[in-house]
Amino acid sequence: MAKAYWVATYRSIGNPDALAAYAKLSGPAIAAAGGRILARGIPAHVYEVGLLQRTVLIEFDSVEAAMAAHDSPAYQDALKLLAGGAERDIRIVEGV
């Protein structure tokens, strides 16, 4: 079974306090679901039409595990704290 990667890019952060509150709950919720945060922060460099946006890369054992983490009650509780505080894009990509 291929690993999966959850890639989150933040288009904007309107409320840093909401992001901080979200982060306190989301990290443990993701870890409890088997996720491993591999990278997070502003890109060191971008090419082509890349944007200097906060990016988070999380590894899971499978696409199903990544989706289950996102849909878990613990992560959904964290997500409620972020509501309206940031605009972002989350993609789950299967590894090769």
UniProtKB/TrEMBL annotation:
DUF1330 domain sequence ranges: 3-96
UniProt-listed SUPFAM superfamilies: Dimeric alpha+beta barrel
Pfam families: DUF1330
Name of protein: DUF1330 domain-containing protein
Organism: Terrihabitans soli
